[in-house]
TrEMBL record:
GO molecular function: DNA-binding transcription factor activity; sequence-specific DNA binding
Pfam family, one: HTH_18
Domain spans labelled HTH araC/xylS-type: 171-273
Entry-linked SMART domains: HTH_ARAC
Entry protein name: AraC-like DNA-binding protein
UniProt xrefs under Gene3D superfamilies: Homeodomain-like
Keywords, ordered alphabetically: DNA-binding, Transcription, Transcription regulation
Length: 304
């Protein structure tokens, strides 16, 4: 549990409050991340695909989201839910933003959103479209009126526990296959998963789309990419060839192609953006993971 404040390089101010969920939700909800930003200039962030589903509850300021590889896919949101995505996301705002983000496992997201999770494949969705207008408005009102970040965490605890109480669980084979994908950081063959689960490959893929949000191969690509990002971060020499082999890519060229196909840039370009980040302004959206690069400032946030 932490709360930090700071001043950005351009003289603006920010606040970040990270809270852990109640014990009953540990391992299901990764963290609650409250934020309040009052910056002097717009911000642009390149967000890496991660094996989580994110629910954003906004109090002030819209976020503009653009697919990092297919820029014609874009829209603006105040509150949204983002399922697992194959491509990165460029997030933009005008410098003023206030809200709280909930990062949860796909298994938990299936309990919270039900079969609607399958509709979030590679998507961002307005939160009322996923939860319903009345439920969303009530939750936003409770969060906005709560007197502190700790109180907001308790509101979210109660909401999520209520949604999960009567939810339908993952199919046991989906649960097992997801754990195997995580254990191997995406380096187990999909056919091997299907054979061990006693399902056809096609049935496994269908069930993953419905209950996880992406087919197993798409999940494996995200997990391999996340491991590669950690390897780049933790190894000073950043030997791309060795990292590629450790992370399940054929060679360095394969790794670079995957980066470009997912993020629209090479590993060196991504980490160059991270290196040039100035000030103490928070970047990564998940504690301990490499998820974000703050891009050079745009003159303005794009509008519809």
């Amino acid at each position: 549990m932490s709360t930090s404040w700071g001043r950005s390089a351009d003289g603006g101010v920010w606040e970040l409050a990270i809270r852990q969920p109640t014990v009953a939700l540990r391992g299901q909800v990764l963290e609650y991340r409250g934020y309040r930003m009052d910056l002097r200039h717009p911000r642009r962030r390149l967000e890496v695909p991660a094996p989580v589903v994110t629910m954003v509850l906004g109090f002030d300021g819209p976020i503009r989201l653009t697919d990092a590889v297919t820029p014609e896919l874009r829209s603006s949101y105040t509150s949204l839910v983002a399922g697992m995505r194959r491509a990165g996301t460029i997030g933009e705002h005008d410098g003023r933003l206030h809200g709280i983000a909930v990062s949860m496992t796909p298994r938990t997201a299936f309990g919270v959103f039900g079969p609607a999770l399958g509709d979030l494949t590679n998507q961002w969705v307005h939160l009322p479209d996923a939860l319903g207008e009345r439920v969303t408005d009530r939750l936003l009102d409770q969060l906005f009126e709560a007197p502190s970040w700790d109180a907001r965490a308790r509101v979210l605890d109660a909401f999520l526990l209520g949604r999960l109480a009567d939810s339908r669980p993952w199919a046991p084979a989906v649960d097992w296959a997801w754990q195997e994908l995580n254990r191997s950081t995406g380096q187990v063959a999909v056919q091997e998963l299907a054979d061990t689960a006693g399902w056809s490959r096609r049935r496994l893929e269908t069930m993953f789309r419905e209950q996880v949000g992406l087919p197993p191969k798409g999940c494996a690509r995200i997990l391999r990419l996340q491991r590669a990002l950690r390897e780049y971060r933790d190894n000073q020499d950043r030997d791309g060839a060795r990292i590629a082999l450790r992370c399940g890519y054929f060679d360095q060229a394969h790794l670079v192609r995957e980066f470009r196909a997912t993020l629209g840039c090479s590993p060196s370009q991504f980490f160059a953006h991270r290196k040039t980040q100035t000030g103490a302004e928070p970047a990564d959206r998940l504690t301990g993971e490499v998820t974000t690069a703050i891009l050079p400032n745009a003159d303005r946030v794009l509008t519809e």
